[in-house]
Amino acid sequence: MGQRTELARKLRREPTPAELRFWEILYTFRQSGWHFRRQVPVGPYIVDFACKRAKLAFEIDGDSHYSDAGLAADAVRTAYIEERGYRVVRFTNLDVLGNPEGVYLLVADALKSAPPNLPLKRGRNRLDER
Length: 130
Prior knowledge:
The protein is α+β, with helices and mostly antiparallel strands. It has 5 helices and 4 strands, in the order H-H-E-E-E-H-E-H-H.
């Protein structure tokens, strides 16, 4: 098994408080039939949460994302993920922990504006198209 897959598993086992809260926020959407995955490998990156059907990738950003280097790295990462057909939606840890209702509404809006439901390609189970 690859290092990236092992890292994704480790991140799923050890979520941050904001990631735990975001997973709780997604619960209602999961009850409505939306399917989300946590810590999804996408090429060289790992996306915090993804909804393949809606072509959405959700990132929960901590303090390290707001340095010049962090912002530059996020721009490259976002471009890579968007090139694969996904819309990247970012929330800060503060957003998720301090305003969960607002985050819920933004997720609902993102799901409403998602592309129509298309059948999945046979045998595909990851975001990264090789």
